[in-house]
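The methods section describes the discrete structure representation at length, but only in general terms. What matters is that the chain and its backbone geometry are given together, residue for residue. Nothing conveys this as quickly as seeing an actual entry. For illustration, here is how one protein appears when written out as sequence plus structure tokens:
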Amino acid sequence: MPRPSSSDKRYLEQNGGKWRVTIAVPRDLQGKLGTRLKRPLHTDSLAVANQIKWQVIGELKAEIDATRRGAGGATKGDALAREALAMAAQRARAQTHEEVSDLDHAVMGRADDLLGRPVAIEQLPGEDAEPVYAPERIAQAAQFRSLAMGEATPVAIHHDRFVTLSGNKARTKADDHRALKYLLAWCEANRVPPNIEAFTRKTAVRFTNDLPKLAEGRDATTLRKYLNRLSIYWKWLEAQELTTTDVWVGAYKLLPPPAKGPEERPFTDDEVTRLLKGDAPQKLHDLMRIGALTGARLDVIVDLKVKDCAAGLFVFKPQKKETKERAVPIHPALVEIVERRTKDKAPEDDLFPEWPPSKGTSERERSFKASNAFTLYRRKVGVDETVPGKRRALINFHSFRRWFITKAEQADQPESIIAAVVGHKRKGMTLGRYSAGPLVAQARRCVEAVALPPLG
């Protein structure tokens, strides 16, 4: 049973009537850090000290770990920001006026600590002497105070955590970062404090009206996507009790509507024939055939491993709104490709090592280079259809997926089976919620009902 906050004195000691955190330094580091690390909490309330001590304990332990590694670890500014945010969170959860008052005293005491000692004393005629502090110390203390009091929380300070926890694909994460980049650039240009508290509905409207010029060259659909990502971030902040409302709701309606025109379409049989008869490298020929005879998206094909091509089945990773892996029978016309690409390879080896994952911190999908290579080849063989004002062509690798679905439908395959094979949500409560999905035999009949056009 946990100790009540009124009696728990772990990591705590009193100094001058106030509580402070104290942590023993390992013997081998005492030459660098001393025997103990201490930090005042600026409160005489043991309950408040127990509320705010854990963040400080974490920071001091991180300092010990960084010293042991000989690394700088997090910057002092990062550590202070986390400490301030922890105090702001405690302040937001406070239940009584006394708790808020005690925490406010702790915040002000910590801000005084950050000011440090005066660098000079200023004496003006007829006035009391005033201490003068280093400008950088004044700025640091002011930032800490505003952050801990919940008055000026930087928009970007939680964004990396939001993006990491979202679990989205690399492309969506890149959209998150671009949206925030545009927002911060706009704040700087318009002298708007880049703080969560500074954003009202009016501020959001101003940004939305300026976004087309700020992101010149981006189409209306992309701009709406950026506003949607900001809205989702604000909803996450609201759930974290860091803001009270999503100021971006409906903001996309202020943008020009997306240009209407022809929708992206499947390949025709003639286009599939031209693509498969062209002089593409083997890796592209293999990709195109798997795409045409599974209806799978490019990214999941490129991401296949040898172990994902066993027992006559492809096992594709989940995409979009899928919650689990999806097994698709291997079409007889693909058996040679699978045997050739899996021969003498280990289960964890890539099926398409020609397109390895991106290196470093790149958020591009693994299929990025494969997509570019296919686009160049597609245009080379004269398979193209563009519309003025639209960034993407009406036909692309995804058109193989559309072609597969069209051919399966024309072969009288049930819509629910086609949906299960390509990973679409199946319609209706019975099939969508209660059915465990089609048997492999049913899926195999669907896949084998699709045949490539004669290549002559």
